[in-house]
Amino acid sequence: MQYRRLGSSGLQLSALSFGAWVTFGSQISRDESRNLVAAAWDNGVNFFDNAEVYAKGRAEEVMGDVIADLRLPRDGYCVSSKVFFGAVDEPAPTQRGLSRKHVTDACHAALKRLRVDYLDLYYCHRPDAETPISETVLAMDTLVRQGKVLYWGTSEWSGAQIAEAVAFARANHLYAPTMEQPQYNLLHRDRVEQEYAALYADAGLGTTIWSPLASGLLTGKYNDGIAEDSRLGQSSLGWLQASVLGEPADDRLGKVRRFTALAAQLGESPAQLAIAWCLRNPQVSSVILGASRVSQLEENLRALDVLARVEEGAWQQIEAVFA
Fold first, then answer.
1. Number of structural domains, the chain?
2. Is residue 148 in some structural domain?
């Protein structure tokens, strides 16, 4: 495993991390969740990602349960939560968003569900148009000073919103956001590569990116259609299918078919190749992997081997596919 600094902080995260979105608390059993965390840990993963909204808090409960069961040393791993969407089906106004109240309540609830005394990373899961950024920064600063959060950041905020948060924090001697968790993959790259470009040096921003496989699209599993039991085939995730496939004019499936054909020519797994491509970006602190089976996770963890052996000419060919 490789370890990378989280932006300009001193925190070293595994280059490949493991997240609970979609799977924990809903799709897979507690035993399989335990097996996945154990496999990740045995392969050097030290960052486990979660959020209040994942399975309405159940994902955090399962993760906290299996980490305790495995007796992982608290000083050896990092765990995260995210706040915005709430943990109930129809949240009241005070049960969602980024107000001081919900940020604080959600932190306390995540600590209880994850069975920890502090969160290593705490994210604002989306921007909140109803709450001033200054209020959210102050709430996060308070949690850091109370020792309940070590590093706080954002997820899917605009570059301007992050810059505003950083500027307010600096002007008032508060803890500023350390990291952003954006989507990043071969099909979705402008925000990480362009919009945030100035923030890496100016704000010391790190990134823990999600969906390196574009919800499985880059593996080639949808080249011949979308199966009902797949992630994109689930009726509850209809919004995700539209987001991943994009507009017809994008021809994302066409690009993916050319990519998987190229991977076959190179003798590489398209999934490992797509993850390794993300790791080539020095601004990526950690790539969050999702999996429902240990074999799937172990295959994706081997992306580090692909990163080491694929030559520059092959990467240029991949870039040409998605140009």
1. 1
2. yes
pLDDT band at 240 (very low <50, low <70, confident <90, very high): low
**Structural domain includes residue 284:** yes
Q: pLDDT digit string (tens) for 81-114?
A: 999 999 999 999 999 999 999 999 999 999 999 9
In a domain, 227, yes or no: no
What is the Cβ-side half-sphere exposure of residue 315, based on CA atoms within 13 angstroms?
14
CATH at 68: 3.20.20.100
Tokens of 177: 């956001």
At 25, which amino acid appears? G
Q: Is the confidence at residue 135, as pLDDT, over 80?
A: yes
Read off the pLDDT of residues 32-63 as tens digits, 9 standing for 90 and up: 999 999 999 999 999 999 999 999 999 999 99
Q: Are 14 and 2 in contact (CB under 8 A)?
A: yes
- Tokens matching residue 154: 């954002």
Instruction: For Cα atoms 46, 36, 85, give the angle at the middle one, nearest 5 degrees.
Output: 75
Q: Worst-scoring range by mean pLDDT, 15-19, 131-135, 141-145, 236-240?
A: 236-240
Range of the domain at 61: 3-216+271-311
pTM of the model: 0.93
User: How many of the other CB atoms lie within 10 Å of CB of 76?
Assistant: 8
Average pLDDT over residues 272-279: 98
Q: Which of 54, 77, 122, 123 is catalytic?
A: 54
Straight-line distance from the first to the last Cα atom of the chain, in angstroms, rounded to the nearest whole number: 30
Residue at 286 is within a domain: yes
Burial per residue of 278-295, b for 16 or more beta-carbon CB atoms within 10 angstroms, e otherwise: bbeeebbbbbbbbbbeee
Catalytic annotation on 222?
no
Question: Looking at beta carbons, which pairs linking 63-67 to residues 24 or more positions away fall under 8 Å?
Answer: 63/20, 63/24, 63/33, 63/37, 63/114, 64/113, 64/114, 64/115, 64/116, 65/30, 65/115, 66/30, 66/33, 66/34, 66/37, 66/38, 67/37, 67/114, 67/115
